[in-house]
Amino acid sequence: MMNCKQATHLMSEDLDRPLRWRERMALRFHLMMCGGCRNFRQQIAFLRAAMRMRSGGN
Amino acid sequence: MAVDVCRGIFRFTRIPAGYIAVMTRGHLSPEASVTLADRLQGFFGEHRADLVRFATLQLRDPAMAEDAVQETLIAVLQGHAEFANRSTVKTWVFSILKRKIIDALRVRQREVPISQLGGSDEEREGFDTLFDQRGHWATEHRPHRWADPDDSLEQQQFWRVFELCLDHLPERTSRVFMMREFLELDTDEICQELAITTSNCWVILHRARMSLRLCLEETWFTH
């Protein structure tokens, strides 16, 4: 079973490439049970949003 | 010569329409030159500092940043036909500046390949202490929900903290992260540009995000 450390890698890569079906399923399963990783996912999404705002284009 | 003209423009409180006519090589009517001069004047008057700051943050070299902004202005003046189709000057100018920054990064990559930048060893992971032996979050490091993150984006103080966190990224990590999140290149382009493997690229981006979120959690979203 996937641990949190591996999950952080997949969540990060999800921002850079389409995850494979198996990866998506494994990640979804992990997130159902892990509040820390759910927060992590929101936080790196926030980082992306902040970077887009900072780029000044919008 | 063109650069001298542009440097000159920065010293004027107004951009003379005559310069526009020269730079656009007479392709614009006098009225159109005046209109373009006004719009560019407004834009550069208001945003020149933003452009320089934007370029400096990415290139981390004030002289290179200044050059990129100068070249952007030249491109802006030469690209009047394209400009006519754009609704906002800002989006257009920033898109040109981004291309200039990418060009500058290419030159620098040839001069100082990323493989020559230090720090690759100490960068490796370094986040092990956040996890227990089974790779689950250690209790004291488990990510908390950040209170009202959207509200933070409205606060100037937040952006200062954010810049400091970005500054703390090791140079290799920063270069890759900025190409991905700031210039919005995809990982294939970054890999090609920097001559690193795709998986290496993902690992570096993961590291950057781990580091930034930790920095924000410790300095801004404290509880």
UniProtKB/TrEMBL annotation, chain A:
Which Pfam families would you find in this protein's record?
zf-HC2 (PF13490)
InterPro entries recorded:
Znf_put
Question: Putative zinc-finger domain: which residues?
Answer: 4-38
Report the domain of life of the source organism. Bacteria
Q: What is this protein called?
A: Putative zinc finger protein
| Organism classification | Bacteria, Pseudomonadati, Pseudomonadota, Gammaproteobacteria, Chromatiales
UniProtKB/TrEMBL annotation, chain B:
Pinpoint the RNA polymerase sigma factor 70 region 4 type domain residues.
162-212
Please give the Gene Ontology molecular function terms for this protein: DNA binding; sigma factor activity
What are the recorded Gene Ontology BP terms? DNA-templated transcription initiation
Read off the Pfam families from this record.
Answer: Sigma70_r2, Sigma70_r4_2
Annotated InterPro entries = RNA_pol_sigma-24-rel, RNA_pol_sigma-70-like, RNA_pol_sigma-70_dom, RNA_pol_sigma70_r2, RNA_pol_sigma70_r4_t2, RNA_pol_sigma_r2, RNA_pol_sigma_r3/r4-like, WH-like_DNA-bd_sf
Do you know which Gene3D superfamilies this protein is assigned to? 1.10.1740.10, Winged helix-like DNA-binding domain superfamily/Winged helix DNA-binding domain
Q: Does the keyword Transcription apply?
A: yes
| Domain named RNA polymerase sigma-70 region: residues | 44-110
Does the record's keyword annotation contain Ribosomal protein?
Answer: no
Q: Which UniProt keywords apply?
A: DNA-binding, Sigma factor, Transcription, Transcription regulation
Q: Which SUPFAM superfamilies does the protein's record reference?
A: Sigma2 domain of RNA polymerase sigma factors, Sigma3 and sigma4 domains of RNA polymerase sigma factors
Family statement drawn from the similarity comment of this UniProt entry: Belongs to the sigma-70 factor family. ECF subfamily.
| Annotated NCBIfam families | Sig70_famx1, sigma70-ECF
Q: Which PANTHER family match?
A: RNA POLYMERASE ECF-TYPE SIGMA FACTO, RNA POLYMERASE SIGMA FACTOR HI_1459-RELATED
Protein's name according to its UniProt entry: RNA polymerase sigma-70 factor (ECF subfamily)
